[in-house]
Amino acid sequence: MIKFLKCIVLTLIAVILLIQIWIFTSLFWWRTHPVETTMFMRTYYYTTTEPHLYHEWRDYNQINDHFKHAVVAAEDGRFLQHHGFDWDGMLNAAQRNTQKGEVVAGGSTISQQLAKNLFLFNQRSYIRKAQEAVATFMMERMWSKQRILEVYMNSVELGDGIYGVEAASRRYFGKSAKNLSKDQAIKLAAMLPNPKYYQKHPEDSRYKFRQRFIQKYIRYSHIPANE
Fold first, then answer.
1. At 162, phi and psi to the nearest 5?
2. Which of 1, 81, 150, 224 is the most exposed place for a label (fewest CB within 10 A)?
3. pLDDT tens per residue, range 139-192
4. Superfamily assignment of 2-73+86-220 in CATH?
């Protein structure tokens, strides 16, 4: 029995180590290569009856600055100040959720969201959050802030089967992400974190509120300069 338990423990340790090696090598490769698929994309493809996946990679300087500012204003106002984890933001989110008695705010940074999109499933658990933290820690030390934002903008879900700002720009506005207007960029950024719902309910009051919020704070958001 003891031997059996030891075998199970060693197997689990080996699996955990292999996962960390996979994440590390993936991050190392993606430092200089486009991210063509993510775990979220694969999950969508294999769990949808008739999947139609839209995704086009664009380099950082091929994406309009309006969208960069809008995303930072919407999702992570302290993006350039933290190292992957915004402790003040998480504390504020926890306090708001406690006051409301439900989840009304999230404290995840762009880096944490990207780590989840790249490697994990969209299921809440302590194990997933722990792995997300490890992947975020690795990413923040291997990639520049520009690279993190670049990959995030190219992989984030922005509708049913729509991944990345380029695919979203063409699907919704018939133009490249480089040519987005400020209002169009705000509309796309406001779809986060519930893009499938807002895609079908463009007049939703919460969606309109998010647009007004981004419009108000976009001028205060700071983004990485072109390297």
1. -105, 120
2. 1
3. 999 999 999 999 999 999 999 999 999 999 999 999 999 999 999 999 999 999
4. Biosynthetic peptidoglycan transglycosylase-like (1.10.3810.10)
